[in-house]
Amino acid sequence: MAWLYAEYIADELLRTGQLIPPGTLEFRAGREALALTVYLSDSTDELSGVGVISQLDEWLSLTAYGHPWERWVRERFAARRGEAGPDLELARASWRWLASTELLAADLGGTGVEGEEAVDPDLLDGVDGLDRVDESTQVWLPAWQLGLPLGHLSVHLF
What we know:
This protein is mainly alpha-helical and 158 residues long. The protein has 7 helices and 2 strands; from the N terminus they run αααααβαβα. It has helices at 2-17, 25-41, 49-63, 69-79, 86-100, 121-124, 143-157, and strands spanning 102-106, 138-142.
């Protein structure tokens, strides 16, 4: 039940934030990334209504720009190696989907090249032609890279 509750919390946060229409792949990416954050940050497997409110700051921190979220997810799964159960298997399936599914998104990092690290906009100030991002340029991203910021904004808006 812990995974289903984590998914429910993520779904409600995304719907409340109204950032993207439900039923889209982008919404699913946000829900799955946020559900993984909720599920893997709960050490008791017993989320409660009060616990949700008290963990909002932690979820904001975990989903913040610059936090090594992907590494954190992999470390959490590694720590649970050898464990079994339906909740953990659903979480692993979600991670497999997030890591293997790619979505076409605006190149907000301004790299113009798929797979490169995003360029820090502060470093580009004053550089001719490089200080503006062309939002019509698109790149393929793993679903978690698009879903994570959506989840973060949804928690922030809550």
